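Weekly puzzle thread! Below is a chain. First person to post its structure in token form gets bragging rights.
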Amino acid sequence: EFESRVDHHEIMPFFERRTAFLLAGGVEVLKMKLFTYLIAAGLLLCTSVCSAVELDNELHIPADIRAMKDDTAYKASISTLDEADGYYRNFKYDLAIKAYHKALKIDPDSRFVYNKLASIYLIKGKYNKALECINESLARRIEKKADYFTRAEIYIALEEYAKARADIERGLQAAPLQTSSDRLGYKILGRLYRKQGRTNLAIKAYSEAIDIAEERPISKWRRVIPLDDYFIRAQLYEKTGDADKAIADYKKIISYQRQSIYLQLAYFMLGKIYYNEKCYVEAEAAFAELAKLPQPRGFEKLLETTEYKTLEEWQKAVKEHMG
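Winning reply:
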């Protein structure tokens, strides 16, 4: 086309248009190349940052721990700790104590053993031993949040409520802040207020624990369902005479349909409230749902402490009122 145009007035406009077209195309190509280079640079930067983070995390592991990774004594300590944790989970506390002390002989500076020992001594009612162990743990650990909460529980058992309150505050303010582990702090605070008979403050504390569980999952794939907190708060609402809020909490437990004692307890307490409120149709429905579920161990003894001694007697009482 270029060669066929002999007239200068035709050739030059064509030449100018073609040059402009090529220049425009070149700009677009440059844009595409620049975009590609930017993506590549971004990926390289991300890779470098990730590598730096991994390196930084590795460097932040205490030198003594890095040195012990291949150490025979260290491996023996880990094995003993696993054994002790197994005893602890299966409520074999005396065996767990022996295993934890064995682990301490291998690694006297273990950061976690003293907290576990304190928890066991607390369960066994040996409060002074528990206090001694948790103070040892506080002296060794960098992150002290869990230790403050454990010591607060020990102080509650010793009825030293001011010290318990101070440790709860320390735990809530200790790093890491605003995490799911703060739920434990608010649960212990609720327990403290219940001991002191401060029901409204206890309700507020358990509400904080529930909010943390609902809003701050442990991870993307794992969350805590605070059935126990809902149940205790419902009981506290009943104590204040707020039946509607108690009913709402029992229904919340039921909505999760988790196979635990709290499901059976929620149905029973719901039926009991409805019965006392003379809502017999609702009471009958709650007791009927409860009858479909297996009764957990100890449930019969709980019923013996109520107005009617068995579920059948409760159902019979409801039907009599319904006529």
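Puzzle host: Confirmed. Bonus trivia for everyone else. Confidence is low (pLDDT under 50) at residues 1-31, 43-69.
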